[in-house]
Write a structure and sequence with these properties.
By secondary structure, this protein is mostly helical. It contains 10 helices and no strands. α1 packs parallel to α9, α4 packs parallel to α8 and α6 packs across α8. The longest helix is centred in the N-terminal third of the chain and has 25 residues.
């Protein structure tokens, strides 16, 4: 890749990281973008995951400083995430892109509908079970590709674990540190990471996420909800359209 190509990629990754702190789904944009620059498919997925680790760290710091993340409360999710993400990373190359797109689209729409409807119709005792099960299954997908992972996980935390949007946005960034880290270690073991490009993207994604999280942590609940749900609906429709 030329220096110009790398500069363009870095700039685009920076911008998507700023917005992605609230909306998630960076990989639905960044990975296909890397394909356009001639980066091999598995290398693109692995190198993007390397950068996502630093993006997650950058996005987590402002929320931690403002006390919007309860690390102890998230420990069961983190354990499930480490196991699921490692399994997902090992599955790279074995699941078709079309199948992934369909699963993600259905999951996005289902969770959004559940979030918007009244939750009283579901017995309260089942909510944590559903939430932890969703976290584990999503972690497998998160380790495999990550496109839409944080977006759906944010909605799942709101729908099933009783979090508000501010807490959920911060918590998913914290959980994603573990998801992307373990997946990256697996990809490194498989020799799939482009470290030169990954280092550049890591710096830009960390900076973009830090900037975005700084403002997201100060947003009120109404605007976080509007931005998040609007993004989920758009991405779900687009993914279904691409599937067809």
């Amino acid at each position: 890749m030329s220096l110009t190509d790398i500069a363009i990629l870095a700039a685009l990754f920076f911008l998507t990281s700023i917005v992605g702190v609230v909306t998630g789904s960076n990989s639905l944009i960044t990975v296909p973008l890397m394909f356009q620059f001639g980066i091999e498919e598995k290398t693109a997925v692995a190198t993007n995951m390397f950068g996502l680790t630093f993006m997650a760290i950058g996005g987590t710091i402002p929320f931690l400083r403002q006390g919007k993340i309860e690390a102890g409360k998230l420990m069961p999710v983190i354990v499930l995430t480490l196991i699921g993400s490692a399994c997902g990373a090992l599955l790279v190359g074995y699941i078709t892109g079309a199948s992934i797109k369909l699963i993600v689209s259905i999951a996005m729409i289902a969770v959004v509908v559940f979030t918007l409807l009244r939750r009283e119709h579901v017995e309260r005792r089942w909510m944590p079970v559903i939430g932890y099960s969703a976290a584990f299954l999503l972690a497998i997908y998160g380790g495999l590709y990550s496109g839409g992972y944080v977006t759906i996980l944010t909605a799942a935390f709101v729908a099933f674990l009783g979090m508000d949007y501010a807490e959920s946005v911060g918590s998913t960034k914290f959980v994603n540190v573990f998801s992307s880290s373990i997946a990256t270690l697996v990809f490194m073991w498989q020799g799939l990471v482009d470290y030169k490009l990954g280092a550049i993207l890591a710096v830009t994604m960390f900076a973009g996420a830090y900037v975005g999280a700084h403002y997201a942590a100060k947003m009120n609940e109404v605007w976080l909800r509007r931005i998040f749900l609007g993004t989920v609906v758009i991405l779900a429709v687009k993914t279904l359209y691409d599937f067809n």
